């Protein structure tokens, strides 16, 4: 039996005034594999522990199969948790570790058949008589997973179970976890800070920052339509290119987005997305281009929807099946100062992410103090306008382009580039996505 899990405006604070989870609402359907993704300290493990009953909920409510469960003890929730540090009893064999919760739940019953069945499922039959000290990291994690699976719980809660393993073993166990949970059909909530795990495992991905839910959707949608610049920059390898831009929309000329020494000319007639950018006339924006949105080609080879720019090769990363080329285009990178931080620094203006719903509800939420801080906070050098910054990028150049390894590129080459405007992201100064436009425009009569 699997179950539905619902969190309604759940909050948690460990010290006065500091919420690690802030009014989180999330519905997990029976049998779903949901991944909680975010940087360290964003509150994802706290959410998992509140679902398990290991942390008290300060505000809001937890529903299990539609029934109020805030006060239900962990033993009454019928959930199994897999921890990051394996949490095996060192004086027990693998067989005893897997069978221990079964002996607690049903004293006097022989757990042997279920232990053996679980071991066959995980391929660890030959490890059952070994102590944890005699096992490798991957073998210990399989035993820890076996202890959870043998109980036949209604939900699996996994708290970064693969983070202590090497990269090759992580990839292998990731595939095993995906196959096991699909075969068992049990609701699974999986916590990780690794976006590769999140994208490959989850039916849906919930991105957290500072205890506030930024976006929840399928991996494909989160990647293709990030709700704000934080989600866009956190999802994807290599990280999305973020550049400072200035919208110019003269009444008697073509609409462009200036990128410092170059500009993107928007083709006419303007698409709906680009028409909506007119309201940003004269304003600085954040332009997002993923590495696959730009290709190396002569300007004469431009396809419909592609616009030309040029770039100076600064660095070439050979990846085997591809190369990542770092270009200097004369643009100014937009630096998300706290992308990896769980909390904004003191003194930043507070602002919450807009949520779907009525216009009045969104206005109320915008007026409230957002404890996670602004979605994007950019440096304010003395010679720049407030809100956007010119800062030294961490990597050479300002634009990373993914291409095939057969191209012979060297440092200092001037290369023609084509930007596919179908994959252009534009964010406002607060970091909210304004292009592509939302799937549904707000109705002012709601």
Automatic annotation (TrEMBL):
The source's superkingdom equals Bacteria
Keyword Ion transport found: no
ABC transporter domain: residues covered:
5-235
The molecular function terms in GO held by this entry are:
ABC-type transporter activity; ATP binding; ATP hydrolysis activity
Kindly indicate whether the keyword rRNA-binding belongs to this entry.
no
For this record, the Gene Ontology CC terms, alphabetical, are: ATP-binding cassette (ABC) transporter complex, substrate-binding subunit-containing
Entry's SUPFAM superfamilies?
MOP-like, P-loop containing nucleoside triphosphate hydrolases
One Pfam family matching this protein: TOBE_2
What keywords sit in the KW lines? Answer: ATP-binding, Nucleotide-binding, Transport
Q: Which PANTHER family match?
A: MALTODEXTRIN IMPORT ATP-BINDING PROTEIN MSMX, OSMOPROTECTIVE COMPOUNDS UPTAKE ATP-BINDING PROTEIN GGTA
Query: What is the official name of this protein in its record?
Result: ABC transporter ATP-binding protein
Organism name: Streptomyces coeruleorubidus
